[in-house]
Known about the structure:
alpha/beta
Amino acid sequence: MKVGAVVLTMGNRPDELRALLDSVAKQDGDPIEVVVVGNGSPLPELPDGVRTVELPENVGIPAGRNVGIEAFGPGGSEVDVLLFLDDDGLLPHADTAELCRQAFAADPELGIISFRIADPETGTTQRRHVPRLRASDPMRSSRVTTFLGGANAVRTKVFAQVGGLPDDFFYAHEETDLAWRALDAGWMIDYRSDMVLHHPATAPSRHAVYHRMVARNRVWLARRNLPVPLIPVYLGVWLLLTLARRPSKAALRAWLGGFREGWKTPCGARRPMKWRTVWRLTRLGRPPVI
């Protein structure tokens, strides 16, 4: 299988980006072709052979990654698998790409692999980086219903069948939108604890737009993908969970503003999942109401 890699950067972490690219170059097996997308910023000097795209403005994470996909031909068709890696991440093991090749070759239904993210200093994996409800044991691999945006591998046939990431989301929940569409089309998603990306432990709320985007995109996600009876259930559960977490007044105000925005603004094409997909998600441990 031919493997490519998409790295999105805003140009503010040149040393980390270079270390990531070095770790990709050291992967076992055939060389991995890499495209680095400068999301609204010029790119630093990069190793020979790395493809580059410089966007004139920051178009957001999903749109930027979609540009990277298209750099490998329509829907990434020049390669069989695409790795999506954070620019401040690093592949500590040289066999990760080869493990991806083996996993996809062994399971024709496997469409997406979510890597385990581990802090390079402590080796710990944050609970939020295990994409399932039962997240207490990050060392347990399993089938899952979503994946991590900057640490994953996707079979490019998935993009050909269901399209890319939702551009307008800008940040937050774009992975779940793609995951639900892929699952609805019959693909499966694996979380693999043996495929590791080193990334410093951080809080998602470090992004200024976090609370508004999370709420807005949660509404868009439901409106785009869920059968009508499940939309109020899903969003009602998340409203209660947000209140139960007792956010600060400023955070709650931003969240509620985003929630209202999600109802008032266009969410893109609506393609509700089949009820058998709802049951499939439920059997996988995460019914689409939470």
